[in-house]
């Protein structure tokens, strides 16, 4: 009854019908289904549409059971993140050129709370630039990867010492997924 | 004079003219120049052409000074690796469908000398599959990334103990580049 804090059952959630239509028979969303859905919904607007590669890492970011697919809750979680990143990007891209400059990207990463050395920051920004500017698709890919890698690191850094011991197999599993 | 082991001077190397033509004014090859060169040279043949993303990680694999560009020696090194991977791929793709099957990919990774757990191997293969098959571009992306990540790990595992202590900044620098 009203007033409880029980989570809304999926079937009455307004996004449920949308999710099931995209997910198809297997009831989960893979990278190609996600790309189609993001393109058809016009999520990127006038910005560059998402590449399949970016859709793959979006799924990997949330895919703890390594099936390469997304369930309903991950799907909603992804949209929340995507909306945040899009707002952030639009805030920096004030002239609506569809790109942000390296120094704006640097501010954006800082404002998300990541603390890395100037050399690392420069390397990251150069990696996601095209002719010295950062397009929306690459911006999101960078945000997704930075969050995933930081999550992977933190999950292992249980004592919060800022350093983690990796076994080879674990290192490959966690870095190759993204 | 003949018989010495001095490296051939770049200017007399048959690939030098080709390199300088692609590299342009700055004398180095970036990801977009590499993509153009690989497309125009018809390297992929009837296979899927290389995505910009794959070209970026090809450069990152060899780019120790983190400029995002490749000099002449790296360029030659890349072609040697690419030829090897292409031969390998063609060996497995005997029906010339342009794709290899997951179990063939698994054999290919094993034959390159990587030793990872079945769970990791499965995760890696799923990550680079499209509708259950692996296309040439993704095959190469997977080989590039696997080699880069293994190199990064080995460079830090100086005692060859199979485990490495990573600081957060170093972890981000090495994983975000690829
Ligand atoms: Ca599906
Ligand atoms: Ca999953
Ligand atoms: Ca360089």
What does this structure look like?
The structure is a homodimer of 178-residue chains. The first copy, chain A, is mainly alpha-helical and 178 residues long. Helices cover 56% and strands 5% of the residues of chain A. Chain A contains eight helices and three strands, in the order ααααβααβαβα. The first copy, chain A, has a two-stranded antiparallel sheet. The mean pLDDT of chain A is 91. Bound molecules: calcium ion (3 copies). One calcium ion binds at residues 63, 65, 67, 69 of chain B. One calcium ion binds at residues 23-24, 26, 28-30, 33 of chain A.
- Kindly name the structural category of chain A: mainly alpha
> Which sheet architecture does the biggest sheet of chain A show?
2 strands, antiparallel
- Order of helical and strand elements of chain A: HHHHEHHEHEH
* Helicity range of chain A: 55-70%
Please, what is the oligomeric state? homodimer
- Average pLDDT rating of chain A: 91
Question: How many strands appear in the DSSP assignment of chain A?
Answer: 3
Rg of chain A (C-alpha, Å): 18 Å
């Amino acid at each position: 009854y009203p007033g409880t804090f029980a989570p809304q059952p999926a079937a009455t959630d307004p996004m449920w019908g949308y999710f099931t239509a995209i997910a198809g028979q297997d009831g989960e969303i893979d990278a190609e289904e996600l790309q189609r859905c993001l393109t058809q919904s016009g999520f990127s607007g006038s910005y560059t549409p998402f590449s399949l590669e970016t859709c793959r890492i979006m799924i990997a970011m949330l895919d703890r059971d390594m099936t390469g697919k997304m369930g309903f809750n991950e799907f909603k979680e992804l949209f929340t993140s995507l909306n945040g990143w899009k707002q952030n990007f639009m805030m920096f891209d004030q002239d609506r050129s569809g790109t942000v400059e390296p120094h704006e990207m640097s501010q954006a990463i800082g404002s998300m709370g990541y603390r890395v050395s100037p050399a690392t920051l420069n390397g990251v920004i150069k990696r996601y630039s095209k002719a010295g500017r950062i397009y929306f698709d690459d911006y999101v890919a960078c945000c997704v990867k930075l969050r995933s890698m930081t999550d992977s690191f933190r999950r292992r850094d249980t004592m919060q010492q800022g350093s983690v011991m990796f076994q080879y197999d674990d290192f490959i599993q966690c870095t190759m997924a993204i």
